[in-house]
Amino acid sequence: MSSTSQKHRNFIAEPMGDKPVTDLAGVGGVLGERLVTAGFDKAYVVLGQFLVLKKNQELFKEWMKDTCMANSKQASDCWQCLNDWCEEFL
Amino acid sequence: MSIYRAKTKQEVYLTSLLYDSIDDNNFRAVRSLLCEKGANPNFIVPTKGISPFHLAVGIDDCDFALKVTCLILEFGGDPNVRSEDGLTPVHIASAWNRLDILKLLMRCGGDAELRDANWMTPVQYALKENLPDCVDLLRDHLPDKYEAMHEDLRDCYQFSFDKLLVNNGNLIGEYEIDEETARSINADRPLLDLVNQPEPDHTKLVLNWFETHVDEAKVDETFTVNRPNSTDEDFVSYESSADESDVVLNPKTLNSTIKKTYKKKRKIERQPNPRSSTPQTSPKSCMVERNPQCSSESGIQTLPCSGNSLSSVKPPETSSDYMTCSGNSILNQNILAIYDASKSLFASDESCNKSCESYEASFVTVSEVYKYEDEQEGIVLYEKRSIDIGRCSESVLTGSISSKMSQLPDRLCYDFSALRQALLELGYPAGPVTSTTRSVYLKKLRELQSRGGQAAVVAATPEDVERVYSRELRKTLRNGDWTSNLDHYKQLETTMMEQFRDPSKKWVEGRAKASFAYLLLDPRKTNNLREEADLKKAWERFLAAIFYVGKGKRNRPFQHLYEARRKWDKPNNTTSTEAKEVRILDIWRAGRGVICLHVFQNIMPVEAYTREAAMISALGLRNLSNKDAGKYYGVACQWSDRDKEKLGAYLLHKAMNIFLNECGSEIYPENLN
């Protein structure tokens, strides 16, 4: 299992509050902008989507690919990030 | 993102020295470090989070800053180097109103559009600080970039019509673009722009072709009438290779369907790449005009045929190698040639005489193959568009609509509740279908339907799915030497145990120390675990083998086995609903026995419950055949999930050590009486 990024650790270290969507692991500037365009401007909106998809990795990754053309790695990172955050704070 | 980090101690040292020299405004030292020692100004200084370059741009003394920036740029400074916060020297120069430096940076390739960790560009910083000069300077560099990007986009791929496929079930006619024709056509239209070309022209062309074929009487008229709309006005000469010499048939499949593969070559296309064509126009176009009636070129390829033993049969009426026709008649000629050829082939093949009659003109599919070529990325995409001939005679418009991309899923008509219902019927635990989740679920549905609903069955058997343990347990799996420091874990266990020693407290199920916890293991997973040298792997395998965690007294664990044994004795009634019985029976059927590992002997019931619950938490209930997650007693109730998982991981680790020292005897059905 690979270790997680600094961004990942930062994100799951605290409640997400009003953090922008770019704070999610796997979501950088480009994906962030696409997500904002699609209406997902905050990390918590993406969390909502994540929860609506029942934390299902496959579906969430598919959704990421559809919505912001994320690649597989980015989508997995983002899923992992939200999943770990939920384990911690939900 | 260009974050540079030093790789060797030497580099770190030099960069740190450079940083300190800049900090001290010591120009001589800076120069000697850069020029003589080769210090890299782009490396991030570990404790500071920025590179010497960042510091140089932002240092108080403006003259010194300018001098050092010049020097750094000269010695490999990257104006877009990132700090740990994503800041570049351009950001800093903008925010601090260092105009001279900013000019220098921009001239050396500084990017005014990079965003830092706060998603801010240098321009935004300048605006925020109210620095109009900086803003102007930065803006001056933006439009260039925009145009450059636009240029890239325009050049990024070439789009061309590649070939036309005609398939009547038995024969496939493939019409390709002839290089020369393509080039000459290009030459005629030097300034042709891809963007301005109405795309469905090819479609029209093909449809026209079919109109002519379906209604042979008014062939020529229809074609010429419709054509002016298309941009293919320069279709003066068509080259055709109506050569039937490459017909192949497989004698072994005489009584079944015959597959004959046929290749025709004809050029209907132009290559809309204005750049390559512009220079030499006239000579080539002349060539077209003067194109001889017959070209001796032989460029026939044979499509791969599915049969192994192929004999090549020459049809009776083999025409000359290539027929070059001009004007519209070629369209007729070609399609008729296919018919003729197929008929003659059928005639020559006695067993197929009957199917000859059933073969009717209406049964032809036509598809266009388009080619997208991206030279930069080295990618070539082929897009095949099928044209619905059934409708082609109605109008060109409907025809081009029916040639839409590939097959759009007909299930796009599912509404939210119908989609969810369909997924549930296939056994997929779909969540709410909303406008944002719909497309994902549609894909899932299509996937499930194409797999015939097998996915649901697969998902229901957890053994094959990769187990995802709790977070703490995953950590231990990631970090092989977590066992080197177990103090925290031991502390948790001691705290948990101590509370149960207080004699004044009363506990559920009494204080009798007759209980223990136990694990049921699958020997197919533990196989020779003791010989596994790698502790990390052993740990993984041990965890994977556990399928039940329990608490009990006396021979409680055997009750599971007895229950399973009863089912075992009545094999016709094996529809056991309990996951753990299913697993036990499965192990027995594989010729193995269940391993029952008793751990933590002689403890109070509440403590056993707590230990059981901790281990279940660590493993994750979904990975086990347990029904309940277990119950914590005493202080452990108030622990965070992480502490509970930690305790569980530690207990499991102890259990593994016990297992490694035990004999791991397997219990077979015959051992139960």
Automatic annotation (TrEMBL), chain A:
<dbReference type="Pfam" id="PF02961">
    <property type="entry name" value="SAM_BAF"/>
</dbReference>
<keyword id="KW-0539">Nucleus</keyword>
<dbReference type="GO" id="GO:0051276">
    <property type="term" value="P:chromosome organization"/>
</dbReference>
<dbReference type="InterPro" id="IPR036617">
    <property type="entry name" value="BAF_sf"/>
</dbReference>
<dbReference type="GO" id="GO:0000793">
    <property type="term" value="C:condensed chromosome"/>
</dbReference>
<dbReference type="InterPro" id="IPR051387">
    <property type="entry name" value="BAF"/>
</dbReference>
<dbReference type="InterPro" id="IPR004122">
    <property type="entry name" value="BAF_prot"/>
</dbReference>
<dbReference type="GO" id="GO:0005634">
    <property type="term" value="C:nucleus"/>
</dbReference>
<protein>
    <recommendedName>
        <fullName>Barrier-to-autointegration factor-like protein</fullName>
    </recommendedName>
</protein>
<dbReference type="GO" id="GO:0003677">
    <property type="term" value="F:DNA binding"/>
</dbReference>
Automatic annotation (TrEMBL), chain B:
<feature type="compositionally biased region" description="Polar residues">
    <location>
        <begin position="273"/>
        <end position="284"/>
    </location>
</feature>
<feature type="repeat" description="ANK">
    <location>
        <begin position="48"/>
        <end position="84"/>
    </location>
</feature>
<feature type="region of interest" description="Disordered">
    <location>
        <begin position="260"/>
        <end position="300"/>
    </location>
</feature>
<dbReference type="Pfam" id="PF12796">
    <property type="entry name" value="Ank_2"/>
</dbReference>
<dbReference type="InterPro" id="IPR011015">
    <property type="entry name" value="LEM/LEM-like_dom_sf"/>
</dbReference>
<dbReference type="InterPro" id="IPR034998">
    <property type="entry name" value="ANKLE1"/>
</dbReference>
<dbReference type="Pfam" id="PF22945">
    <property type="entry name" value="LEM-3_GIY-YIG"/>
</dbReference>
<keyword id="KW-0040">ANK repeat</keyword>
<dbReference type="GO" id="GO:0004520">
    <property type="term" value="F:DNA endonuclease activity"/>
</dbReference>
<dbReference type="GO" id="GO:0005737">
    <property type="term" value="C:cytoplasm"/>
</dbReference>
<feature type="repeat" description="ANK">
    <location>
        <begin position="85"/>
        <end position="117"/>
    </location>
</feature>
<dbReference type="InterPro" id="IPR002110">
    <property type="entry name" value="Ankyrin_rpt"/>
</dbReference>
<feature type="domain" description="LEM">
    <location>
        <begin position="408"/>
        <end position="452"/>
    </location>
</feature>
<dbReference type="GO" id="GO:0000724">
    <property type="term" value="P:double-strand break repair via homologous recombination"/>
</dbReference>
<dbReference type="InterPro" id="IPR003887">
    <property type="entry name" value="LEM_dom"/>
</dbReference>
<dbReference type="GO" id="GO:0000712">
    <property type="term" value="P:resolution of meiotic recombination intermediates"/>
</dbReference>
<dbReference type="GO" id="GO:0005654">
    <property type="term" value="C:nucleoplasm"/>
</dbReference>
<dbReference type="InterPro" id="IPR036770">
    <property type="entry name" value="Ankyrin_rpt-contain_sf"/>
</dbReference>
<dbReference type="Pfam" id="PF03020">
    <property type="entry name" value="LEM"/>
</dbReference>
<protein>
    <recommendedName>
        <fullName>LEM domain-containing protein</fullName>
    </recommendedName>
</protein>
